[in-house]
Each structure stands twice: as C-alpha cells, then as structure tokens.
Amino acid sequence: MQDIFVSTLPKLISGWAEAFPDALLVKDVLEVSSNLEIVASYSAALIFWLHINNSQKDLLPAAIAKLLQSYPDAKVVVLANTPSHAETLQALSAGAMGYAHAYSAPEMLKKSARSLTMAAYGLGSSF
C-alpha cells in the first residue's frame, strides 16, 4: 500500500507523517499525473489522501474524478480543514471512499487506511 497525500502544504502535517512515514506528498492532482513514473513504480495499491481547504472546495469533484480517471484502482480519501455534511456527500458521490478532518489523529488515519485495505479484499473489520 502506498499513501500519497495531495496537498498545497509545503510538507506533511505531523499527524499524516506519524501515521504514514513512507507517504509521498504532491502539490496537486495534475502533479500526480505528471509524476506517473514515480507513482507507477509502486506495485501496491494506492491510497490518495486529497487535502481540501476552504478555497478549494469547488474543485473537489473534479479532483476526485481526475485521480480516479488516472488511477482507477486507487482509493481516494478527502481530508478537509473544515468538514461538513454536504461536502462529505459531495466527496462520496464523486467516488471518494472516505472523508475525514485534515487534522485527525494518526490512529484514526491508520484505521481508515486499514478499512480501505480490508474493503478491497472483501473482509470485514474489527477495530
């Protein structure tokens, strides 16, 4: 499993880095596509953690669609600075597999990743 954070931040938030020390950081969805050789070098399944701040909310459906178009087997989780029910529904409707607060505890992020992995194999979860 390779975790790839898509964020305009200059570095991973500490909780992200603690949860996934081997994660990659890219600045935007287009950068993921242009770095195809880097991403394609991972044979494991991909989880994209798409960080959305208030100024990017209108781009959410298009960003999810672009990731899933480029990587149809990948899982997308949206990380929002200010989560909302409406945005959760929008993200899930666009194809995201999860939605969480951007500053969630590392353990919660790990549980989310485990549940995505188990869902990919059709297994139940027992946290």
Describe this structure in words.
The protein is of the alpha/beta class and 127 residues long. The protein has one domain (2-120): Response regulator (Rossmann fold), CATH 3.40.50. The chain contains six helices and five strands; from the N terminus they run βαβααβαβαβα. The chain has helices at 14-19, 29-34, 36-40, 60-70, 85-93, 106-120, and strands at 2-6, 24-26, 46-52, 75-80, 98-101. It has a five-stranded parallel beta sheet, sandwiched between helices. α5 (85-93) links the parallel β4 (75-80) and β5. The longest helix is centred in the C-terminal third of the chain and has 15 residues, at 106-120. It is globular. The two termini are 19 Å apart. Mean pLDDT is 84; it is low at 121-127.
CATH architecture label name = 3-Layer(aba) Sandwich
Beta content comes to 15-25%
- Report the mean per-residue pLDDT as an integer: 84
Work out the helicity level. Answer: 40-55%
Within CATH, the superfamily carries the name Response regulator
What's the CATH topology label?
Answer: Rossmann fold
Question: Which class best fits the helix and strand makeup?
Answer: alpha/beta
Low-confidence stretches: 121-127
* Main beta sheet: 5 strands, parallel
The outline comes out as globular
Pattern of helices and strands: EHEHHEHEHEH
Identify the strand order in the major beta sheet: 2-1-3-4-5
Question: Total number of β-strand segments?
Answer: 5
Distance between the termini: 19 Å
Q: What CATH first level would be assigned? A: Alpha Beta
- What is the rounded Rg? 13 Å
Q: Number of domains in the coordinates?
A: 1
Q: Total helix count?
A: 6
